[in-house]
């Protein structure tokens, strides 16, 4: 598990599949090989009013860590991340009387997964309750575990195939954690951050 | 020597020509009068032809004599030692021995010649910094560097450990007395270094998350490349006369990989080339370069 950067790619009047096609072509031209597909999904549960102060639980799955369920509890003042095994899904079902999910908010990012050198590139199509919302590009540099050490290097790589739509600063979530060891939960935090943006963004059939 | 052989060759050639022309004389004599002499005055023609041939032979003979007179006689008989008896060998398979013997003589001659030249070159470029002057100053005699007491190696390792604050070293001794150390370079990488006495025997570079096994390569391309370069540096710094210095300089060089992911290439200014960061560090200046840029 190495440092991962999550990055939006503007679609600019193109359709989702067209954009994926364009990026696939670019990355393949650089010498990447496709290694399967990937899927990250997120479901959000909110506590029922009887429990008092409202809390939100985001439950996420990442196909890169297939045996793990990630959950992030948002109390309003702080967030508590939790990594558990697959049984957590069943536990959430048991607790359906305390935590209810809004079905319309299920967000997903899925698409092809490429490997090129020590990099892993994932081109994800974002859907919120099966409405297309945008394109997310995930780039992982596997040998390095400290974001501060390899940010410049990753920025160069990103610019290499995304062009100059790459911002010069790291994602907001990572900015405070540049010197810390990178863990899979950090990727999940970045995905959640992006999903929250897309849920609020206007699109075709917005439901928040 | 070279001139002698040339003249000998010339003389032998002259003898060959002489022999072939003498043969022509006898051939002509034995066949007697032939149809090509025609009808008229055929005896005269035949005698003329014979005369021509004989003059040619005479000239050839003069050439041979000239060539022979310019040859220098060898000083005394050649002493071949026991190898003279080889010529009297009767069994088939041993008859080839003579040729092989001559070949091996040639080789020893060449070796003597080359070693003399090498000796001359080395004598003019003496190693001022090495053991010779060093030893006379300190009177330290070190007979071997792969069979040293474990305490000496232990001291070396602890001194290296103190040298760099961001290199953490743990050592184990699976094969007494040769230690195997694991050097963690910050949060960048770790290296397994196997010692043979005071010399570095083997280096493997891996990510922190990978196993400490000495025999498997890293699964990441960048660390495989760094391992390769470490081997090159290990050979470069190797010095049998001053093994401690060799280990120290190697560790100094190795420490420069602390910037493996963060430093751009000195030549092209980029971070990536072929999807790899600059994996080479200059051996003297420790500056980062891509494999292709160095």
TrEMBL record, chain A:
It is found in: Nucleus. InterPro entries: Mediator_Med20. The keyword Transcription regulation applies. One of its GO terms (biological process) is regulation of transcription by RNA polymerase II. Keywords: Activator, Nucleus, Transcription, Transcription regulation. GO terms for molecular function: transcription coactivator activity. Pfam families: Med20. GO terms for cellular component: mediator complex. Component of the Mediator complex, a coactivator involved in the regulated transcription of nearly all RNA polymerase II-dependent genes. Mediator functions as a bridge to convey information from gene-specific regulatory proteins to the basal RNA polymerase II transcription machinery. Mediator is recruited to promoters by direct interactions with regulatory proteins and serves as a scaffold for the assembly of a functional preinitiation complex with RNA polymerase II and the general transcription factors. Component of the Mediator complex. Belongs to the Mediator complex subunit 20 family. This is Mediator of RNA polymerase II transcription subunit 20.
Automatic annotation (TrEMBL), chain B:
The keyword DNA damage does not apply. Keywords: Nucleus, Transcription, Transcription regulation. It comes from the Eukaryota. One of its GO terms (molecular function) is transcription coactivator activity. GO terms for biological process: regulation of transcription by RNA polymerase II. It is found in: Nucleus. GO terms for cellular component: mediator complex. It holds the Pfam family Med27. Belongs to the Mediator complex subunit 27 family. This is Mediator of RNA polymerase II transcription subunit 27. It comes from Henosepilachna vigintioctopunctata.
